[in-house]
Specification:
Helix content is about 35%, strand content about 20%. The protein is α/β, with parallel strands linked by helices. α5 crosses α6. An eight-stranded antiparallel β-sheet has the order 3-2-4-1-10-9-11-14. It folds into three domains: about 240 residues, Aminohydrolase, N-terminal nucleophile (Ntn) domain (Glutamine Phosphoribosylpyrophosphate, subunit 1, domain 1), CATH 3.60.20; about 200 residues, Rossmann fold (3-Layer(aba) Sandwich); about 160 residues, Glucose-6-phosphate isomerase like protein, domain 1 (Rossmann fold), CATH 3.40.50. It binds 2-deoxy-2-amino glucitol-6-phosphate. The site of 2-deoxy-2-amino glucitol-6-phosphate has 16 residues, from α10 and α18.
Length: about 600
């Protein structure tokens, strides 16, 4: 949520900062700002709206700024105060020329504000960040590191910050607690960001700060300390994806690019992890000791949004194939409802970003209660990956589009592998295991067959573009697909959409059906299809137009709906993936036809790092 970039080195800072902001715009895009050091102190420029507005602001008359070699920048997703220019970051504090950008929330900002106002500080914005800027200023006595360290000890909440003082030119202070900060180590320069995608153009060497780390950066000198002023050693890690992976690559939107990347992303997820001979999956991050395995009572899966929907597929597969009790839970609810969890539970936290605040809090809660905890994460080095210490990386490559696509299908692929691995360690035969391996390995080509229908799906989308409300229904493995289909449609097209179990429709939502409310029904051939076709008939009897996801060649299902998208025949636990891809394309084309800002839907941010 929000994006931070900072630069210090021998080169002009502004191009690096603006390029970084564009890379991070998917994290927040309601306003943006930049602060750079110059001969006359620190200059700040801010604007409402996207980074392009800020670029427009830095006109020709800003030549003096353009030679600056040290600066900080921010793209905002509003929490405290509306997305106005005055609330945009950077924020300045007091008389010592303190300027900072901040991700996260300072929870005790009201009390601090009252104290600072009592000392004569005048606030111009409604943000919690301005409190931190004034607080640092109030503590400044000639040493920025000391002032920031003391200030951070006084704040409650979360932060990732980058800070400058016009008293100490060329010095950049960065720190984190609960909000990521990555330091890119260049040959003679340092680029800091809240996300590696903003530094990859400059260097692949990255230092990931841990909570309560604070770093003083002067050119290429990086001095990392704890808040207790003890030196901390953090070794750089290699970023293993290319700069091209974070580009649009000729596609109109990141979302479309990422939809089309899915066969390759899933192949990367599966690579080296399938054992066709033994009929099992090799996921060393989920290896349990024989004792842990024998004691295992339950698998608990926690996540939010799309990651939680993927978790539901994992719950079904784990019970279905491995005979292990499994439950999926919304991560925020898990944290706050005092769950019964202990050492016989394996908790798998699913998160594309590895930074989602609620999922991270659930991880900590599960660890405190003595559970075995593993992460299923895409972003290498992210907080959840590091704190869980064990788990499985998705290897799906960077996901830039706010609407998650390839992360979901990679997550489902890993969860199917997890079910296979546990099933083989319990009651599944080697022959059944080999069959399961073949099914999982077929997923990329099944997805390719759906992608080949892109034009056909775009045509079907034209019929659904005018609607303001829609229902998605499914049963069994297709129920999570209905939830995910509805989430995709609502977040990028702004059409109100709800995912329901097909049987649940009759318990209330059916009252809303009429000619203007279409139903998208997962009618794939397999257990439950007949019942779903019965539900389809009920919808059509209420004048709803029904678009079915059907199995290729299934004439009965095709005849039962108004429109259909067919997906290749495969078992239902596998059909989750190609069926979801069909719905991703449907949502994409509906949103495109409606002229929506697909990669940056209103009010959303890619990584939700506040609760
Ligand atoms: C889905 O398209 C959304 N972007 C959102 O629901 C997302 O899946 C959720 O915020 C969880 O994010 P995470 O996987 O990074 O933890």
């Amino acid at each position: 949520m929000c994006g931070i970039v900072a630069y210090t080195g021998p080169n002009p800072a502004i191009p690096v900062l603006l390029n970084g902001l564009k890379r991070l715009e998917y994290r927040g895009y309601d306003s943006a700002g930049i602060a750079v050091e110059g001969a006359d102190g620190i200059s700040i420029r801010k604007s409402e709206g996207k980074v392009s507005e800020l670029v427009g602001l830095l006109g020709e008359d800003e030549a003096s700024l353009k030679s600056s070699t040290c600066g900080i920048a921010h793209t905002r997703w509003a929490t405290h105060g509306p997305p106005t220019t005055v609330n945009a970051h950077p924020h300045a504090g007091g008389k010592n020329g303190i300027v900072l950008v901040h991700n996260g929330i300072i929870e005790n900002h009201r009390a601090l504000r009252t104290t600072l106002e009592g000392k004569g500080y005048v606030f111009v914005s409604e943000t919690d960040t301005e409190v931190l800027a004034h607080l640092v200023d109030s503590l400044y006595a000639g040493d920025l590191l000391e002032a920031v360290t003391t200030a951070l000890k006084e704040v409650h909440g979360t932060y990732g910050i980058a800070c400058l003082s016009d008293q100490e030119p060329g010095v950049l202070l960065v720190a984190r607690r609960g909000s990521p900060i990555v330091i890119g180590v260049g040959a003679d320069e340092t680029i800091v960001a809240s996300d590696a995608s903003a530094i990859i153009k400059h260097t692949r060497q990255a230092i990931y700060l841990d909570d309560n780390d604070i770093a003083k950066i002067t050119g290429k000198e990086i001095d990392i300390r704890s808040l207790n002023n003890m030196p901390v050693s953090r070794k750089p890690a290699e970023i293993d994806w290319s700069a091209d992976a974070a580009e649009k690559g000729g596609y109109e939107h990141y979302m479309l690019k990422e939809i089309f990347e899915q066969p390759e992303a899933i192949r990367n997820t599966l690579r080296g992890r399938m054992d066709p001979e033994r009929g099992t999956a090799l996921l060393s991050g989920l290896d349990l000791t024989p004792r842990e395995l024998a004691d295992l009572y339950r698998l608990l899966i926690v996540g939010c949004g799309t990651s939680m929907n993927a978790g539901l597929v994992g719950e079904y597969a784990m019970e279905d194939f491995a005979g292990v009790l499994a439950e999926v839970e919304q991560a925020a609810e898990f944290r706050y409802r005092n769950p019964i969890v202990g050492s016989r539970d394996l908790v798998i936290a699913i998160s594309q970003s590895g930074e989602t605040a609620d999922t991270l809090a659930a991880v900590r809660e599960a660890m405190d209660k003595g559970a075995l905890v593993a992460g299923l994460v895409n972003v290498v080095g992210s907080t959840i990956a590091r704190e869980t210490g064990r788990g499985v990386y998705l290897h799906a490559g960077p996901e830039i589009s706010v609407a998650s696509t390839k992360a979901f299908t990679s997550q489902v692929s890993v969860l199917l592998m997890t079910a296979l691995k546990f099933a083989r360690s319990r009651r599944m035969s080697v022959e059944q295991g080999r069959q399961f391996v073949r099914e999982i390995e077929s997923i990329p080509s099944l997805v390719e067959q759906v992608l080949a229908k892109n034009d056909e799906i775009a045509k079907i989308a034209e019929k659904y573009v005018e609607q303001t409300s829609a229902f998605f229904i499914g049963r069994g493995y297709m129920y999570p697909v209905a939830l995910e289909g509805a989430l995709k449609l609502k977040e990028i097209s702004y059409i109100h959409a709800e995912g329901y179990h097909a049987a649940e429709l009759k318990h209330g939502p059916i009252a809303l059906l009429e000619a203007s409310v279409p139903v998208i029904a997962l009618c794939n051939d397999g257990p439950g299809k007949d019942k779903t076709l019965g539900n389809v008939a009920e919808c059509r009897a209420r004048d709803s137009r029904v678009l079915g996801i059907v199995t290729e060649g299934d004439e009965e299902a095709m005849a039962a709906v108004d429109d259909y998208i067919s997906v290749p025949a495969c078992p239902l636990h596998i059909a989750v993936v190609p069926s979801t891809v069909a719905l991703q394309l449907l949502s994409y084309h509906i949103a495109r036809l409606r002229g929506c800002p697909i990669d940056q839907p209103r009010n959303l941010a890619k990584s939700v790092t506040v609760e």
